[in-house]
Amino acid sequence: MLRARSLLWVATIGFALMGGTALAGSHAEPGDFDASAPDYEYVYVDAAQLEDGTSYKGFYRRTTRSGYVWVPGAYGPAGWVRGHWKPAAVRAGSTWVRGHVGPDGYWVAGHWRVTARPSYVWVPARRANGVWYRGHWKPASARAGQVWIPGHRGPGGAWIPGHWRGKVRTGYVWVPGHWKYGRWNRGHWRPTAKRPSQVWVAGHWNARKGKWVPGHWRSVRRAGYWWRPGRRVNGAWVAAAWVAGARPIVKRRHTRVRPVRHMRVKRATHKRQLRRRGKTQRAVGKHQVRKGRTMQAVGAATGNRKMVRKGTKKVKKGKKNKRKGNNKVKRGKR
After folding, report:
1. Is residue 87 pLDDT above 80, yes or no?
2. DSSP result, 33-60
3. Helix, strand, or coil here: 313?
4. Helix %, strand %, coil % for the chain, to 5?
């Protein structure tokens, strides 16, 4: 039975998930530094290839998740069921929405949703043209000149409601939301024009007030202050702001894992090597079986019992190498 294998990788130089530094929030930030990288331990789940030829890319997932159990991928009555987090308990009146692998190569955690919501319909998750569309609530009726932005789960697990936005906004372009480290980064309006020495701070949807909070421009630097980006804490939005003093230096608790793109290349190379070694060991085993059977035949014809015993041992050893070789080839194909 085909199953995905997990392997924990720890980077030996820095923590660079996407090429970062060992400390978050230091003053000397390189251009590829990503302060939003989550501070978790990850395990890499190998790519899988099914018997019908369907293949799944490898991905990173959290090592542990409180209140959940990781179920490895396996064949079931309905066919192949990919590995996923399973809740340890059920919730009355709620339906579990299974997670999926995001385009960034990280597992997107599943979540509970209410089974029914008045004036809304649930749109199941689907994959179309190589793009994954997550399951979401959608209003039962449309609005002229408006586009519905689906809700999503925030980093803390709270549900961030969806909202309507205009199709067009003069002087602005809509930047779609995207997955990053298994978390959803909201879409926002961005000005088409630029301002020297200034940075655009994206707006956000205020669920409590039910309106869009416009973005604004800010200076790139401010002497004696550091910029704290906006974020959600327990479902509530904490606005971005300049904070007096030096930027705090936060030490990461866990060593960073290898970038997904590098990991996929490395694991693909490893699998090719595993298949090659398996085929070689299998060929050696076949040769040993043939040689052992020849020894058995000669020993039986000449009455040489010692040769017959040696031939029997050689056949057993050859069959063992054939099994080991076949197993390596199968592991290399998963």
Report:
1. yes
2. --TT-----EEEEPPEE-TTS-EE--EE
3. helix
4. 20, 35, 45
Q: Which of 274, 281, 275, 280 is nearest to 319 (CA)?
A: 281
Burial 22-52 (b: 16+ CB within 10 A, else e): eebbbeeeeeebbeebeebebbbbbbbeeee
- What is the rounded distance in angstroms from the CA atom of residue 125 to the CA atom of residue 118? 20
Q: What is the mean pLDDT of the chain?
A: 81
> And the tokens for 276?
């090659």
- The two tokens of residue 176 are 């779609």
pLDDT digits (tens, 9 = 90+) for 247-277: 887 676 766 677 888 888 887 787 788 888 8
Tell me the CA distances in angstroms from 315 to 60, 290, 292, 311, 331, one per residue in order.
43, 7, 5, 6, 24
Instruction: Write phi, then psi, for 173 (nearest 5 degrees).
Output: -130, 140
C-beta atoms surrounding 136 within 10 Å: 19
| pLDDT value, residue 230 | 83
Considering the entire predicted model, what is its pTM?
0.66
- What is the per-residue pLDDT across 274-313, written as a single tens digit (0 to 9) for each? 888 889 999 999 999 999 999 999 999 999 999 999 999 9
Identify the residue with better confidence: 157 or 328: 328
Q: Are strands 120-123 and 136-139 parallel, antiparallel or unpaired?
A: antiparallel
What's residue 156's pLDDT? 67
Instruction: Sketch the domain layout of the chain as residue ranges.
Output: 6-258, 268-333
- Dihedral sign, CA of 279, 282, 286, 287? positive
Q: Which helix (H) or strand (E) holds 20?
A: none
pLDDT at 240: 87
Q: Which amino acid is it at 57?
A: K
Query: For residues 31 and 20, what is the distance between their CA atoms, to the nearest angstrom?
Result: 9
Question: What are residue 128's phi and psi, to 5 degrees?
Answer: -140, 125
